[in-house]
């Protein structure tokens, strides 16, 4: 049984696997003010609440928040008493990182690329809806690169914070392309606009690859976006990053 945690800019998503079965998962805010002890207590309480405390064989984490990486590693090792693998560009993933500067690759993107290379036919494009929306492309067992753009929530917050009359909106599927009021107009622009961007990006990637790719979506807004695409995602796997962390831990601990 292993603990996996993906540390993002907005939230930390964690889960416990037994084999390939996700037994429990939870999400907490990424708070740089919390100490290692505070995070340790949080993880310990989650494990106890799930009835899984004392059963772990190890842990694996990926993190794009440098201030939290070591802090949470220490928290897990101190409070759950297991060795923790921190995934980065130096981890032996069995796929080539075909980038100009491999050290620049976000660990979450590497985990997604690894999982996609093992689970789906290549070439595969992973679209991850986090604080940023990222595209990660794997072809011929190589992570060949991708794209990074502002996430849909960042776009919504920018509209509200940088204008005087536009409100905060809950991200949901727009009724029509042509909004008859401010909220519907914003939702159409945010959701349909993001969907059009994704359609265009996928088309451009496939043109450069010279072949059709399997397109996999992960992250909270996947279902909303998929319904507005010209070409729906081939696969929606909300737990792809956690699954990838599990697979990497198992590969490194054979």
Q: Could you explain the architecture of this structure?
A:
It is a single chain. The chain is of the alpha/beta class. Helix content is 39%, strand content 26%. The chain has 7 helices and 11 strands. A 6-stranded mixed sheet has the order 6-9-8-7-10-11, sandwiched between helices. It has a 5-stranded mixed sheet with strand order 3-2-1-4-5, sandwiched between helices. Helix 6 (222-226) links the parallel strand 10 (214-219) and strand 11 (235-236). Helix 1 (36-49) packs across helix 2 (66-80) and helix 3 crosses helix 7 (240-252). The mean pLDDT is 93.
Task: State the secondary-structure class.
Answer: alpha/beta
Q: Which residues sit in consecutive blocks of at least 5 with pLDDT less than 50? A: none
Strand ordering within the main sheet: 6-9-8-7-10-11
The residue-averaged pLDDT reads: 93
Number of strands: 11
Task: Give the amount of beta strand, in percent.
Answer: 25-35%
| Helix-strand sequence | EEEHEHEEHEEEHHEHEH
What percent of residues adopt helix (DSSP H or I)?
25-40%
Oligomer: single chain
Sheet of most strands:
6 strands, mixed
> From the alpha-carbon coordinates, what is the Rg to the nearest angstrom?
19 Å
Q: Which outline best applies? A: globular
How many angstroms does the end-to-end distance come to?
14 Å
Number of helices: 7
């Amino acid at each position: 049984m292993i603990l996996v945690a993906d540390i993002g800019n907005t939230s930390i998503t964690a889960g416990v696997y037994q084999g390939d079965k996700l037994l429990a998962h939870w999400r907490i805010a990424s708070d740089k003010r919390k100490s290692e002890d505070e995070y340790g207590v949080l993880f310990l309480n989650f494990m106890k609440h799930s009835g899984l405390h004392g059963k772990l064989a190890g842990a694996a984490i990926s993190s794009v928040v440098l201030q939290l990486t070591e802090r949470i590693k220490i928290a897990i090792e101190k409070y759950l008493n297991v060795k923790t693998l921190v995934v980065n560009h130096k981890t032996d993933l069995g796929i080539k990182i075909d980038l100009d500067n491999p050290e620049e690759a976000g660990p979450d993107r590497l985990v997604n690329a690894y999982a996609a290379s093992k689970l789906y036919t290549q070439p595969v494009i992973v679209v991850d809806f986090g604080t940023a929306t990222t595209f990660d492309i794997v072809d011929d067992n190589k992570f060949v690169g991708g794209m990074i753009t502002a996430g849909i929530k960042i776009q919504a917050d920018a509209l509200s914070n940088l204008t005087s009359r536009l409100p905060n909106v809950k991200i949901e599927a727009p009724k029509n392309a042509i909004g008859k009021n401010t909220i519907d107009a914003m939702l159409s622009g945010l959701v349909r606009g993001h969907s059009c961007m994704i359609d265009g990006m996928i088309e451009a990637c496939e043109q450069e690859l010279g072949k059709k790719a399997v397109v996999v979506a992960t992250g909270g807004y996947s279902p909303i976006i998929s319904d507005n695409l010209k070409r729906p995602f081939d696969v929606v796997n909300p737990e792809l990053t956690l699954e990838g962390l599990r697979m990497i831990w198992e590969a490194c601990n054979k």
